[in-house]
Write a structure and sequence with these properties.
Low-confidence stretches: none
Largest sheet: 5 strands, parallel
Radius of gyration: 25 Å
Strand order of the largest sheet: 2-3-4-1-5
Structural class: alpha/beta
Shape: elongated
Mean pLDDT: 87
Number of helices: 11
Strand content: 5-15%
Distance between the termini: 71 Å
Order of helices and strands: HHHHHEHEHHEHEHEH
């Protein structure tokens, strides 16, 4: 289908032609915003070139936004968490400047790791998701998964002779976020499979983990000492280690709320 080329179109005919052209060229943002942008251009007496630039930039910005939304959705985050919503005042152990530096994603570009270590309720998962979201918005492919879910998936894949394919899938993403590592003991087979995923990504793509156990206590999760040491080595070599403290923000918030209710 081709559009008729005419000169001296009426306003209505020109609007219809723009609408049809945007449909054919798949420019939904220009199609939806054209009337408003045209009115603004006329009011501000913009040049033809300036008006064209406004149209194209609007389309580019909207496409970038939609791509970011698709990457965030594909990451599989369980909740919407952002750095803007993180309460740094409630956790004085954290350096806001360091966290915002990590949000620039240079460590992901270099294929380095990130370990968020400390007790429950101190903001580890919030930061893990928030930094993963920042990475997705910056154009990186991100995948979030619970440690136990990842191990179970690997065990099932091994049983179905799909292990190589599954490891390769987890190896392709730019940032793999593993949450709740250390909450449950892993048998030797599960730990070995997790080690294979980390080895697949070593010095190529980044891994970020959140754990409520210090590295010295990881032998409770990875019962084989040598395997435990090898996994810690994979995660810490050249990477970033951040301790979020021991005081539970969630517990403190719950106590404060209870005290407020009791005082009424």
């Amino acid at each position: 289908m081709s559009l008729p080329r005419q000169r001296g179109l009426t306003e209505q005919a020109a609007t219809t032609a723009v609408d049809q052209a945007c449909r054919m060229l798949r420019l939904p943002t220009i199609r939806s915003q054209f009337p408003e942008l045209a009115e603004t251009a006329e009011r501000k007496q913009m040049s033809y070139l300036g008006f064209l630039a406004e149209l194209l930039l609007a389309e580019c910005d909207d496409r970038a936004r939609r791509r970011s939304e698709r990457r965030i959705k594909a990451a599989g985050f369980p909740r919407d968490k952002s750095l803007r919503k993180f309460d740094f005042d409630a956790n004085p152990n954290l350096d806001p400047a360091m966290i915002h530096t990590l949000a620039k994603c240079e460590w992901i570009k270099k294929g380095l790791s990130l370990c968020l270590i400390s007790d429950s309720g101190t903001g580890k998962s919030h930061l893990l998701i928030a930094l993963g979201t920042e990475a997705a918005m910056a154009g990186y492919r991100v995948k979030y998964v619970l440690a136990t879910k990842l191990v179970n998936e690997l065990v099932e894949a091994a049983g179905e002779k799909q292990l190589t394919k599954t490891i390769a899938r987890y190896g392709r993403v730019d940032l793999l976020c593993i949450d709740e590592l250390g909450y449950m003991e892993l048998d030797r087979r599960g730990a070995e499979l997790l080690f294979q995923v980390l080895t697949e990504r070593e010095e190529k793509n980044s891994v970020a983990i959140a754990s409520n156990e210090s590295f010295s206590s990881w032998t409770k999760t990875f019962t084989d000492p040598r395997l435990c040491a090898a996994i810690i080595d994979r995660l810490t070599f050249g990477g970033n280690i951040i301790e979020t403290g021991t005081d539970s923000y969630r517990l403190a918030t719950t106590r404060a709320r209870a005290e407020q209710q009791a005082a009424r």
